UniProtKB/TrEMBL annotation:
Residue span of region Disordered: 1-45, 70-210
Annotated PANTHER family: F5/8 TYPE C DOMAIN-CONTAINING PROTEIN-RELATED, F5_8 TYPE C DOMAIN-CONTAINING PROTEIN
Ranges annotated as biased composition (Basic residues): 1-10
Protein species of origin: Frankliniella fusca
Domain of life, per lineage: Eukaryota
Name of the protein this chain belongs to: Halomucin
Comp. bias (Basic and acidic residues): 11-29
Pfam families to which the protein is assigned, alphabetical: DUF1258
């Protein structure tokens, strides 16, 4: 009888909640034995696969037909059986799906992949981005991303929390159990949660969301839950802590209030708000043939159980969400309102690719937009290294940089989930279909005022790490011959000495001056020839490194020039990581380049560094760099610290060589880059790579070093290096990795939760203008300043802390004002020690905590009569021209100043080598000159680097990146 009741309940749930049947199918995919996509399936890639969820009864548009298009490979043939196509076509259905948070098992752990070593023990940048042992270079394809983002793993958030008490019984299930093993636990789960679901559904039917949370309460149920959810997302609250907060809120309310008292009921409420139109795409991992369900037998290869799927999140709905936000359309006009030298390269709009689209009229329309695509793998279960998710994301180029990188402004176009790595053409096909419509006809989108605007868009560029780039471009991996995406340099195999006697080789790329660059047409021709060779029987054929056609050729203006080079993985987790390994590892102690003997001295210098307050991650001990350093630490070390730290320790020839690298990268990372600087940087990096094999060893000259020679041309095409750096995208990946908990329905949880996060600004804007809940949500979302404000000077400028009224300090400050500005002797002067200006917190020399803290923010760059200068702030002043007769709230003129001790620049190493340009680095010496400057003259906080008795100042290379 119990089984009958469970079965009836399950049928009823599927009637009232049609997504549950679909979710149960997806949930077991993690436990299926699907294999990684082989090269064979990778070649069968240009397919129209439009399979959606089998549990849905609504038809999708007839234009989305399930067909298989032959790309010229005999391994993928369109079936002559029309019934097969009809059967696949019947699956073209879309559905509103919301993740069911009550169906969860156990929490996963996110781990950073280790810094692996090759057969000789040398460490590999990006996990596998350097070297390899396979003769043809194909065995080194990485399924992951190398670095899993720059976010701190200080604690799990609400999506990676322990299971709710309502689903505690499910935690005993292993994520590796088969479908048959989990059937009984599924039934138990349904019975355990059904009564609660029924109660929750009934409650939602009785109580309206806009009803007060209790009689005469100042906020409604919806406002209460919105505030709690917003806080949980912004502060990454764990599920346990959030449950306690719900209990605490309930304690403050009457017993008959509408409070949600459990984490489960909160999630169910927001699961409904986060519903999104999702389209499922199932296919056979062996032959890339469309499947009706994951249990279907493939009608081409006659196999079953080897199934992959991905979810498409339609572009139209996400664009509509963005355009409904206030000021979004206004933000898109940023490109037309920029201030600066138009001859300089300052953003993607100044690159040749973007200008070509402006000149042909497409991006000259203020309503049209362009995207940068990105994808990367993220391991989601510590116990299953093969299970991963691959988000396919679009970044809106027209937004100001600091807004375009925010997770709520990034479009999640698709999500690949499972043990199989993405087949790129299948993964990209739905997005290509949407973009074809968007670029030709456009979408009519509503604005906040309910007017309609026609918006067109296209993808202009893309970025990702080396393994993902090779996969999506259908090229050999970076450790194979002819694997450079920019030129036809083939490289060579370098034989390693092996103690086991086995002959092992790795791929290296000796410097080739003026290497032939690839072109869009040439890549397409190579792809066609590769298909012909594979049809002739050579299943591993590649022509100049190209293994087959990529849909990117039809989605990008130029598949070669439109692909950026990511400096996060390439320059920092690649080149910088290799250099730290070569310079400091004990195995190279006898090599001419080694600094191992000076490791303690260098480590001591680094430990004494105190970066400005805007640096998120100060550098830790270099002795453990390969194990603990993140990409931003390598970046700080390479671009800001390494030159003054190595000066006097490193051999002159090697130091000069190192300065070429730092100079070239620094010039290309600036806010504004002249064409002359691009050419100088390109020459420096070419020279660096040309000399590397002679100074170090050819064995270490892998792809991460080779691609340095292409950075100059990439900047000319796409803008400064920070435009397409993966720093913010890897952080986005870590956000995606936290949008679920448990091991079931992972893809659904992520899509539903992401859709809700994307809708959050709209939900907040729907609240009344004077709503206290709206103010609270905005303060949480936009991270209002967490400091005591003494005075609001103007928008985004604050006097921080308390005013000091010590007579001696005030009197000396008055004298300084009188000496520098006439008429300032009269009035009142107040002293303060911290200033918040344009998002940067500045200290002063007299601020006591700056002496003992890990950060130092009293050194500044400023303009003195429009002359760039370096100095150290002693204190800050507020001058008000009040008279004794003034009342407390008088409107007398107020001025704010900084008392600054000037530092003069000194001649040093770069001045003896005119080809070395380090405009952000200066050797400085303290002077006796004290100046009083308006706070508007302060331009930035600078790094202060003290090495023995020498002092250096390093200005931030740009003002858009967070260091």
């Amino acid at each position: 009888m119990k089984k009958v009741k469970r079965k009836r309940r399950k049928v009823a749930n599927e009637i009232h909640h049609p997504t549950r049947a679909s979710e149960s199918e997806e949930s077991d995919l993690h436990n299926s034995s699907s294999e990684s996509c082989t090269d064979q399936s990778d070649e069968n890639s240009e397919c129209n696969v439009y399979l959606t969820h089998p549990a849905i009864k609504k038809k999708r548009s007839e234009s989305l037909t399930a067909t298989v298009v032959d790309i010229g490979s005999d391994e993928l043939e369109a079936s002559d059986d029309s019934s097969q196509h009809q059967e696949a076509d019947d699956d073209n259905e879309s559905v509103e799906i919301a993740a069911q948070p009550d169906e969860v098992l156990q929490e996963p752990d996110l781990v950073d992949p280790p810094f692996e070593s090759n057969n000789e023990g040398a460490t590999h940048a990006e996990g596998e981005e350097q070297g390899g042992s396979d003769s043809d270079g194909e065995s080194g394809e990485s399924g992951g991303s190398g670095e899993s983002g720059e976010s701190d793993e200080s604690g799990e958030d609400m999506w990676m929390s322990e299971s709710d008490p309502e689903t505690e019984a499910d935690n005993s299930d292993s994520n590796d159990e088969s479908d048959r093993q989990s059937n009984s636990s599924d039934s138990d789960e349904e019975e355990a949660t059904s009564s609660e679901d029924e109660h929750d559904d009934e409650g939602d039917g009785i109580f309206q969301e806009n009803q007060p949370i209790y009689d005469n309460a100042p906020i409604s149920l919806h406002e209460s839950l919105l505030a709690i959810f917003n806080l949980a997302i912004a502060e990454h609250l764990s599920g346990v802590l959030l449950s306690k907060i719900l209990e605490l809120v309930a304690l403050h309310c009457p017993a008959n209030s509408l409070c949600k008292r459990t984490l489960h009921t909160l999630k169910v409420y927001f699961a409904k708000l986060g519903r999104a139109v999702l389209v499922y795409h199932y296919f056979c991992s062996n032959c890339v043939f469309p499947l009706k369900t994951k249990l279907s037998v493939c009608k081409k290869c006659k196999k079953s159980g080897n199934v992959s799927f991905f979810i498409e999140m339609p572009l139209l709905q996400q664009l509509q969400t963005l355009f409904l936000r206030s000021r979004f359309l206004e933000d898109l006009q940023y490109r037309f309102n920029r201030i600066g030298d138009p001859s300089h390269i300052r953003d993607i709009y100044d690159g040749r690719i973007y200008k070509e689209q402006v000149n042909n009229g497409f991006l000259n329309n203020p309503h049209n937009i362009s995207f940068m695509w990105w994808s990367d793998g993220l391991q989601i279960f510590k116990s299953s290294i093969n299970a991963s998710i691959w988000p396919l994301c679009l970044v809106v180029n027209e937004l100001p940089y600091k807004k375009r990188i925010l997770p709520r402004n990034i479009i999640l176009a698709g999500l690949w989930f499972g043990k199989a790595q993405p087949n790129p053409n299948i993964f990209l096909k739905p997005l290509k279909e949407s973009l074809d419509k968007l670029s030709s006809d456009g979408y009519n989108l509503k604005l906040p005022d309910r007017s309609v605007v026609n918006v067109k868009g296209k993808i202009l560029c893309g970025t990702c790490d080396l393994p993902a780039k090779a996969k999506f471009m259908r090229m050999k991996q970076f450790n194979g011959a002819s694997s450079c995406a920019k030129c036809l340099c083939a490289g060579m195999r370098y034989a390693l000495d092996s103690k086991s006697g086995k002959k092992t080789t790795i791929q290296v790329f000796p410097y080739v001056p003026n290497a032939t660059e690839r072109t869009h047409a040439q890549v397409q021709d190579c792809a066609a020839r590769a298909v012909e060779l594979r049809q002739a029987g050579d299943k591993d054929a590649a022509v100049h490194g190209v293994k087959g056609p990529s849909l990117l050729s039809f989605m990008l203006p130029d598949i070669v020039r439109s692909m950026g080079i990511d400096i996060m993985h390439g320059a920092f987790l690649g080149v910088a990581k290799w250099l730290v390994f070569l310079l400091f590892d004990a195995k190279f102690a006898k090599c001419p380049w080694s600094l191992n003997a000076s490791l303690d001295v260098i480590d001591c210098r680094i430990k004494n560094m105190k970066p400005p307050t805007y640096v998120e991650r100060p550098i830790r001990s270099i002795k453990k760099a390969s194990a603990i350093w993140k990409a931003k630490e390598y970046k700080l070390f390479l671009l800001y610290y390494s030159v003054p730290v190595f000066l006097g320790i490193m051999n002159n020839e090697y130091f000069y060589h190192h300065c070429k690298l730092v100079s070239g990268l620094s010039l290309l990372c600036q806010d504004s880059i002249s064409l002359d600087q691009v050419n100088v940087a390109s020459d420096l990096l070419q020279s660096y790579v040309a000399d590397f094999a002679r100074l170090y060893h050819l064995r270490y000259l892998g792809m991460v070093f080779h691609q340095l020679v292409h950075l100059g041309s990439v900047v000319k095409d796409l803008g400064p290096l920070w435009v397409y750096s993966c720093f913010f995208l890897e952080s986005f990946n870590s956000v995606v990795g936290k949008l679920f908990h448990g091991t079931r329905h992972v893809a659904l949880q992520i899509c539903s939760s992401f859709n809700l996060v994307m809708k959050m600004p709209e939900l907040i804007e729907m609240l009344p203008e004077n709503s206290l809940v709206r103010k609270f949500c905005n303060s949480v979302t936009y991270k209002r300043e967490k400091f005591k404000v003494a005075d609001i000077i103007r928008n985004n400028v604050y006097a921080v802390g308390k005013y000091c009224d010590k007579p001696q300090v005030v009197q000396s400050s008055k004298l300084l004002l009188r000496d520098n500005y006439e008429g300032m002797m009269n009035g009142t002067v107040r002293v303060f020690y911290r200033l918040k200006k344009d998002g940067i917190l500045y200290f002063s020399q007299e601020y006591a905590r700056s002496l003992n803290g890990r950060k130092e923010a009293s050194y500044i760059s400023y303009l003195n009569n429009n002359v760039p200068s370096i100095g150290r702030v002693i204190r800050y002043l507020k001058h008000q021209s009040c008279t004794p007769e003034c009342e407390n709230n008088c409107e007398c003129a107020v001025s704010y100043f900084a008392v600054v001790r000037n530092y003069s620049r000194q001649m040093w190493y770069p001045h003896d080598h005119p080809d070395i340009r380090l405009p952000h680095l200066s050797k400085i010496v303290c002077t006796n000159r004290v100046e009083v400057i308006p706070i508007d003259c302060i331009t930035n906080s600078v790094f202060h680097i003290k090495i023995n008795n020498d002092e250096y100042a390093a200005k931030p290379l740009n003002t858009v990146e967070v260091e």
